[in-house]
Design a protein that fits this description.
Blueprint (H helix, E strand, L loop, with lengths): L6 H12 L5 H13 L1 H19 L9 H53 L3 H6 L1 H8 L3 H41 L12
Helix pairs in contact: 1-2, 1-3, 2-3, 4-7, 6-7
């Protein structure tokens, strides 16, 4: 069979007529077209046969307890999701604290090592003289840390700042992802 040129217009009319929603003018237009077009008439008859089959068949509902089982599974899934997010939040929080503690310890140790090796080098003291004067009042540990940090920043300042910025962006991104995806947070996807 060949395709009707008016199929895009007639098929919606057939669907409306099948559902009993076609007005009188549309019904007349459909009847006139079906009287002259064998292709659309065959499609109309096929639609009526399918409709008759559906009307003859008995409607079957879901099995007993289906809704209750689905609801329980949804609740269990939400509980698993909440546990997962709580665990991930605890992990990132722990890593943040461990990272801060490790950074403080490493800076302290490097300061002590730098003080032991570079304590009286004039070039180092010259670059950070002001910082070392302030730290002298705090004590030996403060002075060593300031010498080390000053030298470290003079030598490796830009890469360290980039590394620190990258770490902060990753941490902020993780926390933002956790905040947006947290259980109970409503997403506006058009369905809920």
């Amino acid at each position: 069979m060949r395709r009707c040129k008016q199929n895009d217009k007639i098929t919606p009319l057939m669907s409306l007529a099948q559902d009993g929603l076609l007005d009188a003018q549309g019904q007349q237009e459909l009847d006139r077209h079906l009287a002259t077009c064998a292709t659309c008439r065959a499609e109309w008859e096929a639609m009526q046969r399918v409709d008759a089959l559906f009307k003859q068949s008995e409607m079957v509902g879901p099995p007993l307890g289906f809704a209750l089982r689905v609801e329980r599974r949804l609740v269990a899934k939400e509980q698993r999701r909440q546990r997962w997010f709580r665990g991930l939040a605890a992990l990132t929080g722990s890593l943040s604290l461990a990272g801060a503690a490790a950074t403080a310890l490493v800076l302290f140790l490097f300061g002590m090592i730098a003080w032991g090796r570079l304590g009286e080098v004039p070039a180092v003291q010259q670059h950070i003289g002001a910082v070392s004067h302030i730290a002298a009042g705090i004590g030996l540990v403060g002075k060593g840390a300031s010498l080390f940090l000053g030298d470290l920043l003079l030598r490796y300042g830009p890469p360290l700042m980039m590394l620190l910025a990258f770490g902060l962006v990753v941490l902020a991104g993780t926390w933002l992802w956790l905040f947006i995806g947290r259980p109970g947070h409503h997403r506006h996807n058009g369905y809920a």
